ABC-2 type transporter transmembrane domain-containing protein
Amino acid sequence: MSAVAEVLWTGARHQLQTMRVGWRVAVIVAAIQPVVFLLITLGAWPDGSAAATTRSATGVLLTAFWGATVWGGAAILRRERAEGTIGALLTGVRDPRLVLVGKAFGASLGSVATIMTTIALVLALLGRPVAVAEPGWYAVGLLAVLASGTALGTLLSCLFLMTRHGPELSSALMYPVFLLAGLLIPVDMIPAWLRPAAWVVSLHWAQRFLTGSAQGAPDWPALGAVVLLTVGYLGAGIALFGRIGRLVRERGTVDHS
């Protein structure tokens, strides 16, 4: 177990270092973007209560985190291929699946930390209070978000390696979730026939659990949905990564697009 944890943390630490080097993208998606979302959201809802501010901040956190996952975590393997290091990743002594999951965890950890810091600073400057009735369960919800982002990053990173159209796929995935997952726009304001789209997005359920925890009534089925979807994302990502490894051995190339 300690060896597994070491591999995961080594991958996470390397990814955090990579994010510091490529800080421009991180600043846009994990700092500037949440500021814009937060100002728009707080302006659209005149209720300045702590409960309303907490709901807005939670929605902005998850929305910005999705954007960071799509543009950051999802690009891990494409970046490895561009830098010529993916061969070493796939053929190294350490289990490449653990390395990839560790990198995805590092990307999620860095994004969540940056986004939460940004939101806290903006709310402090605006003098807007927040209220969390169940801070312990709210923290559990944040850990679930971190785990789900790791699983999503693993899956999307493998998916993006299989296509030449990563940026286009990023845009195609990002905006529908912004609109349909109920993170900033309440689900009941979305046409009824589109609402089921939110059910397969773990962050939708994470928001329900976080909002409920903030109000003192954690939504346990929502937390269960986050866990189930996270396991599904991770399983699909690991299976796809295994396929990538087989293609490398069969074709002798990492270009599968």
Remarks:
- The chain has ten helices and no strands.
